[in-house]
C-alpha cells in the first residue's frame, strides 16, 4: 500500500510518501515541505496548503492518508495554526475519497523507534535507516511525515478499511 | 454588502447571513447550524462541514466571510476540534474566492453590545433587536454567527478589500 503522511503546520507542513507492507522496511516515494509566510493572511496560507496537498495526492495517488494529531499542550502561540492546518490536511484526504487516519506523536515514535518518548533526532535516524536513504530527510517535518506513513503501513490500516467504506458511502449519498 | 458569518465548531457550527451597510441595522437573510456527531470519524465530520459550508456559500453568494478566531485558552478537550473546524471554515471562504476576515469573540461582542465582555444572552438579545427578529435565533451558535456578520459589516471591511485583491491575484497565478 502507498501512504501519504502529513505532519501538519502552517509555516512548514511535512509530507512524505511511502510504499510498503506491514513488517517490511518500505520504500520512500518522495517527501515535500509545503511552506507559507507567518505574516501572510491566514486564508491565503490555508488555501495554499489545500492546493498543494490536493496536487500531491493527485500526483502520488496514495491508498490512505495519515495525519499527526495535534494537542493543546503544544506551544500555545502556534498550536491554533497547526490545528487549522491539520483540519485542512484531514479534509484534503477525505475530499479525495481516501481513508484518513490520525496518530499521536507517541504512536508514531513508538512505531519507528520502539519508544514513544524518542526525540526528533532518533526518529530522523530510524526513518533514514528503515527507508535506506542516502541522507537524512530535512527538515525534521519531512522526516516526521515519512514516519507517519511508515506507522500507518505497519499498523496495517484495519480501521482505515472500515473508514474507507464509510467515506465511499458518504460520497455516494446526495446532499 | 452581504456577509456570511461562521462560528466554527465540529458538533455545532453556526452560520448566519446578514445584508447591510455600516451604521445601519442590517437585514437577516438566514441562519443555519451544521451538526455532526461527536462519535463520528473526524474525516467524515470535516468533510460534512466543508460540503455544507460550500453549499451555503453557493446558495447565498456573500461578498465576504467572517469567522470567529479560536483561542487555546478555551476548553482544552474541544478546542482542537474547534480549531480544525475553523481551518475548514476559513478555507471554504478562500476557495470560493471570497475575502475572509477573522474576529476575536471580544471584537464581536463589542461590535453588537458595546462591551467586549458581554455574555451570550446579551449577544443573542442584541442580535435579535438589531436584525428586528420575531424570536431570538437558536442555538447560541447561530446568534454568534449572525453577530459575526454584523461585526464585519459595521467594521466596513477595509482589510477585506485589500485581501480580496490578494486572493484574486493568487487565484489567477497558475501553480
UniProtKB/TrEMBL annotation, chains A, B:
Asked if the keyword Coiled coil belongs to this entry, the reply reads no
| Gene Ontology MF terms in the entry | crossover junction DNA endonuclease activity; DNA binding; magnesium ion binding
From the UniProt record, list the reaction(s) this protein catalyses: Endonucleolytic cleavage at a junction such as a reciprocal single-stranded crossover between two homologous DNA duplexes (Holliday junction)
Q: Which UniProt keywords apply?
A: Cytoplasm, DNA damage, DNA recombination, DNA repair, DNA-binding, Endonuclease, Hydrolase, Magnesium, Metal-binding, Nuclease
Query: Subcellular location, in the record's words?
Result: Cytoplasm
Q: Which residues form the active site?
A: 7, 68, 141
Cofactor(s) needed, names only, are:
Mg(2+)
User: What is one GO biological process annotated to this record?
Assistant: DNA recombination
**NCBIfam families, per database record:** PRK00039.2-1, ruvC
Q: What protein family does this chain belong to?
A: Belongs to the RuvC family.
- Protein name, entry field: Crossover junction endodeoxyribonuclease RuvC
According to its UniProt entry, this protein's organism is: Actinoplanes regularis
Q: Which gene encodes it?
A: ruvC
Amino acid at each position: 500500500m502507498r501512504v501519504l503522511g502529513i505532519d501538519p503546520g502552517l509555516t512548514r507542513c511535512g509530507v512524505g510518501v511511502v510504499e510498503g507492507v506491514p513488517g517490511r522496511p518500505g520504500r520512500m516515494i518522495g517527501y515535500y515541505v509545503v511552506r507559507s509566510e507567518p505574516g501572510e493572511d491566514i486564508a491565503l496560507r490555508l488555501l495554499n496548503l489545500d492546493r498543494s496537498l490536493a496536487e500531491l495526492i493527485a500526483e502520488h495517488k496514495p491508498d490512505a492518508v495519515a495525519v499527526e494529531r495535534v494537542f493543546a499542550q503544544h506551544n500555545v502561540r502556534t498550536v491554533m495554526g497547526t490545528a487549522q492546518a491539520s483540519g485542512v490536511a484531514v479534509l484534503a484526504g477525505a475530499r479525495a475519497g481516501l481513508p484518513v487516519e490520525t496518530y499521536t506523536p507517541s504512536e508514531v515514535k513508538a512505531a519507528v523507534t520502539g519508544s514513544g518518548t524518542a526525540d526528533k533526532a532518533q526518529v530522523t535516524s530510524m526513518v533514514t535507516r528503515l527507508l535506506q536513504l542516502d541522507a537524512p530527510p530535512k527538515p525534521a517535518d519531512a522526516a516526521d511525515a515519512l514516519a507517519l506513513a511508515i506507522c500507518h503501513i505497519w499498523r496495517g490500516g484495519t480501521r482505515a478499511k472500515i473508514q474507507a467504506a464509510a467515506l465511499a458511502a458518504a460520497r455516494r449519498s446526495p446532499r
